[in-house]
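Re: that chain you flagged

S.,

Sorry for the slow reply, it's been a week of failed gels. I finally had a moment to sit down with the sequence you sent. For the record, here it is as I used it:
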Amino acid sequence: MTCLDDLEVVFGGGPVSVRFGERHAATHHLDRRLFFAVRAQGPGLDARLEGVTNYVTGRGLARFLDGLDFRGWEGESRWTNADRDLTVSATYRSGGRVELAWTLRPWRHSVHGEWETTVKTAMEAGAEKDELAAQLHAFLTAEGFPVEYGETEFS
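Prediction finished late last night. Pasting the structure tokens below so you have them in one place:
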């Protein structure tokens, strides 16, 4: 994989945060995947999910957040990535706030067992939500992707 840059998106206030970073592009010219790490931190918790994938043309998480209506909705809205290792649930709360539950669950199983963690963050349903969606859009779009492979020809 080819490291793209050191761009990070950090969200959360107080003791709980969710961090997207360490973007890498697949090195094969036909592989359109972007890989990154998601880190959830809170009191007594530091969970890191590596190798989360996203197809650069599919900015689903940013679109999901952008589509949350600032006027509110009933129940829970949910988004899950293709590998099902990252899930975000959104619930509208009074006062124009959105509660986000970020669930990290590696799809790769090991002999050491499985794990899952969920942290909750909250944000204002208007401008703060729009800013997070814009930051994740830029992060997941990976400007300049695919990687330039120079003069090499592939058969």
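What I noticed first: The radius of gyration is 17 Å.

Talk soon,
D.
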